[in-house]
Prior knowledge:
Number of helices of chain A: 11
Helix content of chain C: 10-25%
Largest sheet of chain C: 5 strands, mixed
Strand content of chain C: 25-35%
Oligomer: heterotrimer
Radius of gyration of chain A: 23 Å
Number of strands of chain C: 10
Strand content of chain A: 25-35%
Largest interface: A-B, 59 and 62 residues
Radius of gyration of chain C: 19 Å
Shape of chain C: elongated
Amino acid sequence: MRQDIVIIGGGPAGLAAALAAKEAGAERILIVERDKELGGILNQCIHNGFGLHTFKEELTGPEYAARYIEKVERERIPFLPETIVIDIAKGENGEKEVTAMNKERGLFVIHTAAVVLAMGCRERPRGALNIPGFRPAGIYSAGTAQRYVNIEGRMPGREVVILGSGDIGLIMARRMTLEGAKVKAVAELMPYSGGLKRNIVQCLDDFGIPLKLSHTVVDIKGKKRVEGVTLAQVDENKKPIAGTEEFIPCDTLLLSCGLLPENELSLNLGISLNPATSGPYVNESFETNVSGVFACGNVLHVHDLVDYVSEEAAAAGKQAAAYVREAAGNGQSETEVVCREETQVVLEAAKGVRYTVPSTLNPLRMEDMQLIRFRVDDVYRDVFLKVYFDDTPVLSQKKRVLAPGEMEQVRFKKEQIEAFPKLKKITLRIEKEAG
Amino acid sequence: MDRLEYDVVVIGAGVSGSAVARELAKKERRIAVLERESDVCEGTSKANSGIVHAGFDAQPDTLKAKLNVAGAKLMKTLSKELDFPYKQNGSLVVSFEEDGRERLQELYERGEKNGVEGLRILSGDEARALEPALSDEVKAALYAKTGGIVCPFGLNIALAENAAVNGVDFYLNTEAEKIECGQGGYRILTKEREFLAKVVVNAAGVHADTFHNMVSGHRLHITARRGEYCLMDKKTGGLVGSTIFQLPSANGKGILVTPTVHGNLLVGPTAENIEDKEGVNTTADGLARALKVGARSVRELPVRQIITSFAGLRAHEESGDFIIGEAEDAAGFFDVAGIASPGLSAAPAVGVYVANLIQARFPAADRADFIATRRGIPCMAEASREERMRLIAENPAYANVVCRCELVTEGEILNAIHRPLGATTLDGVKRRTRAGMGRCQSGFCSPKVVEILARELHKDMGEITKSGAGSVFLSGYNKETMGASI
Amino acid sequence: MEKKEMICINCPLGCVLTVERKESGEVTVSGNTCPRGAEYGRTEATAPKRVLTSTVRIRGERGRVVPVKTAVPVPKEKIGACMEALKEAEVELPVQIGDVVMKDVAGTGVGVVVTKGMGE
């Protein structure tokens, strides 16, 4: 099988990337999806609040997905359902070889010029949190519980404690309450919630569910099925404080303790990952260090709004199409070749900034408007976001509040960057003073 | 109440009970194995280091020494016959003190006496040349070429399955409650049935003292010694190639750092005597201790890569040795008790040893039709391209990936369910196929595995359990108990 | 005079709003940083509404469900009654996005619609 662009993952990122690539003129595009249908995790996110930026209305997850799926169908972009990619390798002449499996075709290889990684992320499991106690049934990641309740119509349990106040955990607190469970508490290790304010109000406060900040689970009781958990308050080093333990009887513990980009395929291909995001380092074109392989959505960095996923993925899809055009039959012009090899400007995430996407950019290739997304490492109030081009301050933006749970962004016009022809480094930092 | 008669009843389908049952099945005997849990390999056998010890630890002339060395020697052949993962990866006992050399020398000599081959004492630098990740603190080490690693579930399940194929009846969810001596044999009472047998093999792990003391005046006392472990992501399994022990202490062989046979990195166990013989819970202190002590052996223990932690109970008997043999005052009652470390390594030899003891007292004729080999479940993750194509051609379900982390397909899960002594629970599928053992720890695949189990066993999803009665996954449907909280 | 405190949800700032309702019926909001906060406080204090999302059973199938939502927000205090009403609801496949499952859920005058096409 031969393709121009293979998109791995048919969730919001893959769908938007496919559409943008098509719009940019790419011909042979194939979406490979591990599930039966397109839409990815949105299919089980039946709550509303999606699409405010993109469609100026509040949609549920399946509705948001449907808007893109309809377009993909209209554009006749093919997709392979229930197909899993098990390997991506570098082939001859810059080609990539995608090895996949499904029931219909068995094991097969797709040769392609470009690959868009859109595999999404997974939830951090209990083990990664190293919660002591027994290992009975009744411990679920919030996403697993969401699938049971929203797709299978089944309740994972009746009396629930949730660890972690990420958005999926908060959403599930409400869902399970509505469907007849008693959610007894949401415990959050940090002194602040990782979820959106709106979700704390509408998912917890509306139902009188207590949010216990600076708390964690220190023991799980129950040999066969969860019988209860012990919560304790933690100190500033996140260590449990003796004497603050409280036993809460329950039959279910949901974990909503963060998401991790799923980059096993990327690693095998030799793609470098940013330890701050666990996603690939990408340039202005969302291209990884392996030429012709692009990344977008939650496999690149975990987003809180699907609208941004779609926006980012569309950019990646468009760039993948441009790559295919350039690579096609020696159609490369001299200048374009030079462009690719041009030294890149490095983006530095300095004090207070955990990471930036992209992490490098090539001024000759950037779009008229370059968007830089980033997250901060702590809650900051009344601070300034500063941007430096090498040592020259070029931006000082007052921020009333910055929180790790909210993705931030800053934009630059191409001219602004071109005004610094010898630019080597763009630095983002959080500072107290306007200076 | 059903009354069933057997020549031999084995209590416990752990690795020892299963090894004995398989060995006994080589003769003309009617054999039953009683297991209180819903699957084999549910106690001590499922939660240990998965190490095949070379055999230099135990004092010469003890059963531990003899059966460890013999078991380790049998392991490789057995792994081929019964198709379970085993690897001879070598082991190092490291010393952090200059004077540790003397103690290493003692171990070396003990090893020689026990018949361990290929032992060598290395300097710190020689050890680091072999294992570059070893900490700079390591001053000397004892290298044992014959040390190995094995999949504890793989070994236990293979033995049990092969026993079942050879006619051994396994009664799962069947807890022996009482044993009575009668004329010419024993009566073993369970909730639903009563078993009569001339010979009883007591392989009940931490509970073996309870059964022994029901029929014998010579009391046994078994203490549950808890060991806590942390298991790390497969991407860290390459940190060390061999198993790294520290010089042993009074409480056991100390905390080791080892690759597992599947390529994860394992750190543990702690050693703590506890009252509760079901106390397989981990503790914050225990896990912290395992990591702290383990971290001393290697330069950088990847603690951020932990994917799960667990605890197991070793059955420690006061004498310090395995208690294997016919009870003095209870003819036909054979103990396989106090099987703490190196019980897993010794298991193949324990089987042979116990079968010989029983044969000497209760002879039975050879069987001509014993099937000595078994094919395991195919493993797509490790199969070659050609092998994968062949499996998919045989059954397209081998192309349907259920567990992404470990690349386990529907085909493998179907195989696990439908083979002899097949999986009926999520944990059963997990231990047979590794579905759910990867870095996401079953977040993605558990709903799919539950669905497959329900479909294949003709049950409702709500009846599928993690590990038998009481461990259901789901509790009814949406909106059944509404109104309380809104 | 009635006084309520609440946290504004419009942005990460999370302003603590104080909403007062005078005897005259006039409602004032303080503590807000922007007009959106005032608007939010006023609605939350006087007539809070929510879009309710849930699932309804598929006729003839055990467990499997179709996701639904109220077509527009319903009064917050009616959510329990709406869920009770949905308990009895069933759909038959196939369904399309926007198919009406209930015309007027729990006397709110609001319809419940399907949010995912299924069963084609």
